[in-house]
Amino acid sequence: MLVLRLGPLSRRFGLRATLVHIVLALLAVATIVVALTIGRGGLPLGSILYAMRPEASDTIRLVFEWRAARALAAVLFGACLGMGGAVFQTLTRNPLGSPDVVGLGAGSFAGVVAVLMLGGSGFAALAFGSIAGGFAAVVIIYLLAYRRGVQGFRFIIIGIAVSAMLSALTIWFSVKAELDVAMQAAIWGAGTLTGVQWGLLGAVAIAALVGALALPTVGLVLPQFALGDEAASSLGLRVEPTKVLLVVVGVWFTAIVTAVSGPIGFIALAAPQLARRLTGGRTGIGLAGSALVGAVLLATADLAAQYLVPGMKLPVGAVTAIIGGGYLVWLLFRESARR
User: Fold this and answer.
1) How far, in Å, CA of 62 to CA of 30, rounded?
2) What is the pTM of this model?
3) Helix ranges, the chain (H)
4) In the Cβ-directed half-sphere of 129, how many Cα atoms lie within 13 Å?
5) How far is CA 50 from CA 14, 29, 53, 64, in A?
6) What CA–CA distance (Å, rounded) separates 57 from 277?
7) Which superkingdom heads the taxonomic lineage of this protein's source (predicted)?
8) Domain locations in the chain as residue ranges
9) What are phi and psi of 6, to 5 degrees?
10) Which DSSP symbol is given to 43?
């Protein structure tokens, strides 16, 4: 049993969870290797390390750099979405409390489309629009859901309604925009990793590292919040300030991905719950497991998007939406049966 301590807080890691994390990390690495070697133009397995050497041919290095950037982006973006989902599902104490369900994704999407309409471009401008839109959506949902506190189920229901309205607003933006902006928004809105290069990947990685500064604290307080606000308060946590921190972290990790790839559903919804079942967690949703499951899910979905249909490259958002639709129906039936 491993124990991580931060002041009065402590977190235990069991043997099962540790082994699951190792296996998931290996699977994430395996998806990167497959992405580099699969399909026409793929690198031979023995050429992967050679491609990183200065004497490698231009063709090999070009294939490696293009494929490696996309593969690493899938892993990094999936991990960010998984952590964002873990934070919001813990705050709402409901497996439906995912950023893409409660309206955060729609808010980020609307923010980016607004920036595009105003002539903005580049990661900094799009990230600003995505983060601002995500925060605006969360604030609106919180204010509408507040009734002497915020119940998780009420937050989710109002979030779904706000998400629908924001989606309609985004469509209106696209109709009013210039043709090239509307086409760019439509392609980006499908959720895709096509065109992700090292510059964008590096920008998201830096932004993720900034968010990671809060992860030690977040990882330790999530199990306390899973027990409820009163239990968390009795354990010495300042509930409301900590909630603000969790919301900021959840919005941050979701919005930085949305700024580059567009809204990608299902990952933030499913990764925390799958991680919890795999690790046997009983004291809440773990950040590490959610990040690793999210990385494997998105990397696998992106491979399916590229090679599942011969001669056609699908946006990864379409693949995750198909899978996520079935998962959401199953989750709704399960929640209804519990009630």
Assistant:
1) 21
2) 0.88
3) 15-37, 47-51, 58-92, 99-102, 104-117, 122-145, 152-176, 179-189, 198-212, 215-226, 229-234, 239-261, 267-279, 287-307, 316-338
4) 23
5) 39, 18, 5, 10
6) 46
7) Bacteria
8) 2-338
9) -140, 100
10) P
Long-range contacts: 310-314, Cβ < 8 Å, 24+? 313/194
pLDDT tens profile 162-221: 999 998 988 888 888 788 888 878 877 888 898 888 888 999 999 999 999 888 888 778
Task: Look up residue 136 and give its two tokens.
Answer: 């605006």
Contact 166, 110 (CB under 8 A): yes
Tokens 């998806």 -> residue: 31
Indicate the CATH number for domain 2-338. Answer: 1.10.3470.10
Residue 204 tokens, joined: 């998201």
Cβ(60)–Cβ(50) under 8 Å? Answer: yes
User: At what angle are helices 239-261 and 215-226 packed, to 10 degrees?
Assistant: 120
Is residue 304 classed exposed, middle or buried when 0-12, 13-18 and 19+ CB atoms within 10 A define those classes? Answer: middle
* DSSP string for 94-155: STT--HHHHTHHHHHHHHHHHHHHTT--HHHHHHHHHHHHHHHHHHHHHHHH-SSS--HHHH
Tell me the pLDDT tens digit for each residue of 95-141: 888 888 888 888 988 998 888 888 877 778 888 888 899 899 989 99
